[in-house]
Design a protein that fits this description.
The structure is a homodimer. Chain A is α/β, with parallel strands linked by helices and about 180 residues long. Chain A has a single domain, classed as Rossmann fold, CATH 3.40.50.620. Chain A has helices spanning about 25-40, 70-100, 115-125, 140-145, 145-155, and strands spanning about 5-15, 45-55, 105-110, 130-135, 160-165. A five-stranded parallel β-sheet of chain A has the order 3-2-1-4-5, with helices on both faces. Chain A starts with 6 loop residues before the first strand and ends in a 13-residue tail after the last strand. Chains A, B: InterPro entries: At3g01520-like_plant, Rossmann-like_a/b/a_fold, Universal_stress_UspA, UspA.
Chain lengths: ~180, ~180
């Protein structure tokens, strides 16, 4: 059953809301470890992991409140800093893959995560999309919205959602 | 990464609505082949496949219109026949697993498929539940209801739904 090309698994990853860059979120790490432990197992040559990080454009500019913009160069430095953040995040996953010996690719896109993920699935055509999720109850979900629910419905490939385990859930379950 | 026990994948299977027993439905076969080709691959010792077939009690008794019931024995023979049907279905999947060399178990339950599947997930605790689905549009779905949507929400393990490919869809997409 080998030889038909590796199974390509896309994993959507994002940063922690509680520990700040460059830490991967609890649910991203959970999704990744689930793929390694339950799917890839010892068959490292049979899989190719594709990490997609979607950066959300900073709507209210809160992060940049203390910055002073005096020249076009100042804006370039922001873009550079955002890029660095995303790169640190991806570095974590690429390093782990390298340790384990599984092939991987990782890239960053900007936009609305749910739409960008579905667009990238269409473009890249993975065999499986794996997303971590916080496992929020229906009440919390109304206010937060979930990327995974949208992708379950709209992504053009099979999708599996890995919920955080109860012992890994922070005090405020909206954090990750 | 091996040695922690095989990854246990539960696959919900049902019979074809167009070809009759003992033929597996298009979507069941699709889900099974996806698991073999994309997940198990050459690592047959790393996985244990668990086939669950839920038999729906015949609500309107249409299948039994031509039967005459004269003694308790007549009812026993119906139950026996139903059981045989389910066994033929499971035999298909167990035979394929045997050919490929992957460990498996298969069993039959009676009831509402979506509820029985979620109950069996709770009892058996697989690492992943795989369901085939017909890939109906929203209009068709309203009338048919989908087991996979229910299980995505309520099953206590990760769930992946494998849609039939377009070329395998029968003329009436509600058939399977």
């Amino acid at each position: 059953m080998e030889g038909r090309g590796a199974t390509r698994i896309m994993i959507g990853v994002n940063e922690s809301t509680i520990r700040g860059y460059p830490h991967a979120s609890i649910s991203s790490r959970g999704a990744f470890e689930w793929v390694l432990n339950k799917i890839v197992r010892s068959n490292t040559s049979g899989f190719d992991l594709l990490f997609l990080h979607v950066q959300v454009p900073d709507e209210d500019g809160f992060d940049d409140m203390d910055s002073i913009y005096a020249s076009p160069e100042d804006f370039k430095s922001i873009k550079h800093r955002d890029k660095l953040r995303g790169l640190h995040l991806l570095e974590y996953f690429v390093n782990r893959c390298h340790e384990v010996g599984v092939a991987c690719q990782a890239w960053i896109k900007k936009g609305d995560p749910k739409e960008v993920i579905c667009h990238e699935v269409k473009r890249v055509q993975p065999d499986l999309l794996v997303l971590g999720c916080r496992g929020l109850g229906p009440f919390q979900r109304v206010f937060v919205g979930t990327v995974s629910e949208f992708c379950q419905k709209h992504a053009e490939c099979p999708v599996v959602t890995i919920k955080r385990s109860a012992e890994e859930t922070p005090q405020d379950p909206v954090d990750d």
